[in-house]
Design brief:
298 residues; mainly alpha; globular
């Protein structure tokens, strides 16, 4: 980036900070200044301004999502809730012990899920999947809190611990979410299995997001991009499933927005890793879904 670009980037960042100081809609803040190029910052600021205007006219409640956004951008329709309370524990040893326990709980959930599905116990499988979703949040919150307490090298170790533990969970979720999409003559059974399959895919998407965010926090930007790409492809799959089933257009629109947000985040991580080709490919995928979401909302 040349000096002229750096100056412009600084001015844009200052403009964004100034706008936020006079903000009538603090729930919209796309973190544009954190983006790696002037063109991306400018595009982000344009969308952010539009969102803020719409928000101000809507009793300070956002009416849409950021497109391009920085790591702290909001609102974005990622599965990971940025408002999950941080654990009250701050002592690293206790955090590490609780993280190990949370990761063990997830592996136990996976075994219980396989057993329930093997017995065709669909309601029980739904309950286990909901529990697994909560355990993912618990493990991720603990990992993030622990990483804050450690040196860079040890923080990377805890990110890799979570990523590797999730890697044993992912195949179980993938195998069963795909297996439940097989044709069934029994309409009630087919609907039950489709609902469970989609829940499993949503949990899997969250797991990929958490792997991505943990990797990004440890500076592993290429790994972060790969995991977020997997999450984005899951959103695209859910779009197709919702459309094929003729389901509520609001569901289709949400998954399009979520997929777009995931692709935008993947493009950011590729850009930070200086992989221009993958950054641009992810941008194109994000823009395409964003355009479809805009049409669906009309």
């Amino acid at each position: 980036m040349n000096n002229k670009s750096l100056v412009l980037l600084g001015l844009l960042a200052a403009y964004s900070a100034s706008a936020q100081s006079q903000d009538l809609c603090p729930k919209v803040a796309c973190d544009c200044a954190a983006l790696p190029s002037v063109a991306w910052v400018k595009e982000c600021l344009v969308v952010e301004a539009q969102l803020k205007t719409a928000c101000a006219l809507n009793n300070r409640e956002p009416k849409g999502y950021c497109g391009l956004h920085g790591p702290q951008g909001k609102p974005v329709p990622l599965a990971v809730d940025p408002n999950i309370p941080a654990p009250l524990i701050t002592e690293p040893k206790r955090l590490a012990e609780q993280l190990a326990t949370a990761l063990w709980s997830l592996e136990d959930d996976a075994k219980s899920l396989e057993a329930a599905l093997g017995q065709a116990a669909w309601p029980k499988a739904q309950s286990i999947t909901r529990l697994m979703d909560q355990h993912l949040d618990d493990a991720f919150a603990l990992q993030q809190q622990l990483a804050k307490q450690l040196s860079a090298g040890k923080a990377q170790d805890t990110a890799e611990q979570l990523i590797e533990s999730y890697a044993r969970l992912v195949p179980v979720l993938q195998r069963h979410s795909n297996g439940l999409n097989q044709p069934q003559s029994d309409l009630a059974l087919r609907k039950s299995q489709q609902a469970l399959s989609q829940r499993l895919q949503r949990v899997l998407g969250k797991a990929f997001e958490q792997q991505s965010l943990a990797a990004a926090g440890a500076g592993l930007t290429a790994e972060a991009a790969k995991y977020m790409t997997q999450a984005a492809r899951l959103s695209e799959s859910l779009v197709r499933q919702e459309q094929s089933a003729g389901n509520n257009l609001q569901h289709v629109h949400y998954y399009q927005q979520q997929g777009s947000a995931r692709w935008y985040r993947a493009s950011l991580y590729w850009a930070l890793d200086r992989d221009e080709a993958n950054a641009q490919n992810s941008r194109r995928s994000a823009d395409a879904l964003q355009a479809l979401a805009g049409v669906a909302a009309d």
